[in-house]
Design brief:
With 266 residues, the protein is α/β, with parallel strands linked by helices. It contains eight helices and eight strands, in the order H-E-E-H-E-E-E-E-H-E-H-E-H-H-H-H. Helix 4 crosses helix 6.
């Protein structure tokens, strides 16, 4: 059976965010959600290597001494700003806690597990990831018609005696989310010379048969090693450049423009 949060993927895509749907996500969940009031923000506490190394755990759950059945969140957020749609039903992500009078976090709040270890050497977070975090939360709150941005809550606020994630300032994060909901727009202008990427040249993207020489030009512009391979690092840098300059942050270049240990809870 499909659960109620089947709108998640489209809402995030409509906000200009990159989305990957995990197979079977519409039918995945511990049970149906209750009334959705907001979003609970987490970090995974998983490996520092890779873009979304904890995805399998988020889907299937934890084993061992601290075993917990999955799914452990509705959404995973990779370091490159990609949203992984995991489940449309209730997930084991909140655990015991309270916020604004509610104690049913798993049933009332959508969980976003953003990939970060929480360690000092994994900070500051990539701006492309933080930007996607803010814009994704704003899109969800707007869709559920929740104007009160304080319904974006950190796990450390919901369960302050147990949790320390996420390790960024939630008041600053909420202020940025509110600005997006209020219609804030990037003010920078594109800086990539149009002569460097001709409209007649093939579109460049992750996984495509790209022109190595053209990829090198783009890599030099966005500040990553110019090896001619359009890999995940190049895609993340392109998306960061696009967002900074007010462009659609899809990680695709064409037409002359830069067009672990997951802490889920029962």
């Amino acid at each position: 059976m499909a659960y109620q949060l089947t709108w998640l993927s489209q809402v995030l895509q409509d906000a200009g965010l990159k989305v990957i749907e995990c197979p079977g996500w519409q039918d995945r969940g511990r049970a149906e959600m209750g009334k959705v009031l907001g979003v609970l923000c987490h970090y995974t506490g998983g490996s520092r290597q890779g873009n979304m190394p904890t995805l399998d755990i988020l889907i299937k759950g934890r084993t061992g001494a601290d075993a917990l059945p999955g799914p452990l969140s509705q959404l995973g957020l990779g370091r490159d700003g990609t949203y992984y749609i995991i489940a449309a039903g209730r997930c084991n992500h909140a655990g015991p806690g309270a916020w604004k009078g509610i104690t049913s976090g798993n049933s009332s709040l959508i969980g976003i597990e953003a990939e970060n270890t929480g360690a000092k050497n994994d900070s500051p977070w990539p701006e492309v990831q933080m930007d996607a975090y803010r814009r994704g939360v704003a899109a969800i709150l707007q869709y559920i018609k929740q104007p009160d941005v304080t319904w974006c809550v950190g796990h450390k606020e919901y369960a302050p005696t147990r949790k320390v994630d996420p390790n960024f300032d939630m008041d600053e994060f909420r202020a940025a989310v509110k600005a997006i909901m209020d219609g804030a727009k990037p003010t920078a202008t594109p800086a990539l010379p149009t002569e460097q990427v001709s409209p007649q040249r093939a579109t460049l993207r992750l996984g495509a048969d790209n022109d190595p020489d053209l990829v090198k030009l783009v890599q030099a512009k966005v500040g990553v090693p110019a090896d001619g391979v359009f890999g995940p690092g190049t895609e993340a840098a392109v998306r960061a450049f696009q967002e900074k300059n007010g462009l659609m942050a899809d990680g695709v270049v064409g037409g002359g423009d830069l067009g672990g240990g997951v802490k889920g809870e029962g």
